[in-house]
Amino acid sequence: RRATGRSGGTEGGLTTGELLRVRGRRAVLGRVRLCHTRARSAGTAFGGSVNGIALETPYLDTDADQLSFSLDHPVREALAVRDLTVGGLDVQLRLLGASHQVCAGPVLETVACLPGAGGGLPGTAAHDVEGWHYSFGARVEEYPAGRFRAEVARLRELADAHPRALYGVFPGSADAVTALVVERGGAGPVWRTWHTYPGSRRIVATRTRLEAR
User: Fold this and answer.
1) Distance of alpha carbon 150 from its chain centroid, rounded?
2) 3 Cβ contact list (under 8 Å, min separation 6)
């Protein structure tokens, strides 16, 4: 997502009182790490939320059609990161200016605006990776204005209440959101993500399951 002439967030450090330490280029809030770019924080806590970040970085994908899917793209610079253990497996949620990455066991899932890559997500994808079965699904929905705002508010509330979540609100609109949640699902983790686009009132939802074979 890319926005011009927009600003967001608040000045200073985290406002929730749960800032544990600042070391070098990274702030740590519990298990949520706010990354710094160009000598400034990438964002601050959104409305006192532990899971939500009010980002100061313009977004790099302007609509759903610009998102691409990859399982072999290298790790990209993140605006915020959350490290979790789900059913004994290390999982890292990575919030990007260009959308998201999830690292889970041998899998590195990227859904983002990637330089040189054609846009458009697959409806489904499945792969076997190092003893795991990976399955991915994506859908895009367009909403009337009022329903779009209500749906984005619902997603923010869901992510706020979820014990394993991370979401970012981009400058210029509280309805420009990327959110990720992960939970245990039988033989492995299941994660869901949402990418919301106020300009077109479209929401991209993805769901991924990783199962031990």
Assistant:
1) 19
2) 58, 59, 170, 171, 172, 176
The span from the CA of 97 to the CA of 37, in Å, is: 11
Contact of 170 with 8, CB cutoff 8 Å: yes
Kind and range of the H or E element at 22? strand 19-23
Instruction: Report pLDDT digits (tens) over 88-142.
Output: 999 999 999 889 999 999 999 999 988 777 778 999 999 999 999 999 999 999 9
For residue 141, what are its two tokens? 């929905």
Of residues 6 and 173, the one with the higher pLDDT is: 173
Q: Which two tokens stand for residue 211?
A: 């199962």
Asked whether the beta carbons of 51 and 162 are under 8 A apart, the reply is: yes
Residue 103 contacts residue 64 (beta carbons within 8 Å): no
DSSP annotation of 121:
-
Please list, in sequence order, all residues whose beta carbon lies within 8 angstroms of the beta carbon of residue 111, skipping any fewer than 6 positions away.
Answer: 67, 68, 69, 99, 100, 101, 121, 138, 193, 195, 204, 206
What string of DSSP letters covers 152-180? Answer: HHHHHHHHHH-SSEEEEE-TT-TT-EEEE
Q: What is the spatial distance between Cα 123 and Cα 131, in angstroms, rounded to a whole number?
A: 24
Cβ count within 10 A of residue 14: 22
